[in-house]
Amino acid sequence: MSMSAILEDCLRNKGSRYEIVHHPYSHSSMETAAAAHIPGDRLAKTVLFEDEHGYIAAVLPSTYAVKLSELWSKTGRRLTLAREVDLRELFKDCEYGALPPVCTAYGMTTYLDESLASQPDVYFEAGDHEELVHMESDQFLALMDRAERARFGRRMQGRTI
């Protein structure tokens, strides 16, 4: 598989400047950062949550975990992790676990953790487990302009790749 068609459309429609970074196959965001030789704080991961009202996406650095209480407070919803079977249905143009952050393009409310806005550049999944999109922070924030910015992440201990 290659770049998600929906992501490719978003990048083209925004006139985004980016490069593709190839890396050995990886299973997790921390593995991806190590395989691509990039700082984990600059690798954006996408985590999907759900409740009876639908799905939301949380985008934060790979070195962070979602503080669910903060997300509940921000959204006013009692969210839980989305089920794997739902992810496969929602992101048909992506491999499982390689979700790009442009979830608004998939019809989902998206929250972007403020910690990513302070990075000079950002990497994120292109839709498979062997390619990342790399762009300057201003380009990433322009791409994510429909996402709501908030603080809902906390740094995981010992995860500073």
Automatic annotation (TrEMBL):
Chain ranges of the YbaK/aminoacyl-tRNA synthetase-associated domain: 23-141
CDD domains from the UniProt entry: YbaK_like (cd04332)
Annotated InterPro entries: YbaK/aa-tRNA-synt-asso_dom_sf, YbaK/aa-tRNA-synth-assoc-dom
SUPFAM superfamilies in alphabetical order: YbaK/ProRS associated domain
GO molecular function: aminoacyl-tRNA deacylase activity
Coiled-coil residue spans: none
Protein's name according to its UniProt entry: YbaK/EbsC family protein
Source organism of the structure: Trinickia violacea
